[in-house]
Amino acid sequence: MYKDKRFAAIVLAAGTGSRMKSDKPKQYMDLDNKEVLYYSLAAFSKSAVDEIILVTGEKDIEFCKDRFVNEYGFDKISQIVAGGSERFLSVQNGLKAIHEADYVMIHDGARPCITETLINKLMDEVIINGACTLGVPVKDTIKVVDEDGVGVATPDRKTLWQVQTPQCFIYDEISKAYIKMQKELDECGGVGINITDDTMIMETFYNRKSKLIMGDYRNIKITTPEDISVAKIFLEI
């Protein structure tokens, strides 16, 4: 199905993980005797994507090349590039590193429980919908609060999903959305622009809505120390 379409994956691993209370960035912390980052790279390597762009800290580029390309043999990693001070800058650098692609998938390297099956599912869906993301329906009641922390509204949770990664887009479209966003950032200095993920960038700067595809509640993002223990359990299931 993909023989005439080229897929690239950007795996983001440039964060510092300040909430982990560790002297080691969370993507390199030990998770069942391998780095957290290993698992998402392994899943993409087994999937049908054609190439992986790994975005990491500039000082970690050589380490990542030695560990993930040379030692683990993830030969789909075509480039390892330095990230930026913000997530969107890291994505920008990843997009610029892609030589040729029809579609691009963007994933947080701190989500080690992503699977080859979910990645391939997104690849099928983006060809149909043009933009899609993994997500799961929220389980809890969600409150909108005011500046004093007082609940002021209760959205219908049947309409609410918790968004995950990977998120997948037409390469030309996401590239143009980032160019437009950068132009507006340059003009306004970032005032009034609050972007938290790539689906928002597509909605805001390209008027493209993303299809939400059922992901997996195990596809958690490593953020705090207890997440390491939870991820270890999920990886063993």
The value of Rg in angstroms is 18 Å
| Tally of helical runs | 7
Main pleated sheet:
7 strands, mixed
Structural class: alpha/beta
User: Which geometry do the CA atoms define?
Assistant: globular
Number of strands: 11
- What is the topology, as strand order, of the major beta sheet? 5-4-1-6-10-7-11
- Oligomer designation: single chain
Task: Give the gist of this structure.
The protein is α/β, with parallel strands linked by helices and 237 residues long. It contains seven helices and eleven strands.
Outline the structure in words.
This protein is of the alpha/beta class and 237 residues long. Helix content is 36%, strand content 23%. The chain is built from 7 helices and 11 strands. The strands form 3 sheets. It has a 7-stranded mixed beta sheet, with helices on both faces. Helix 5 packs across helix 6 (198-205). The two termini are 30 Å apart. The mean pLDDT is 93.
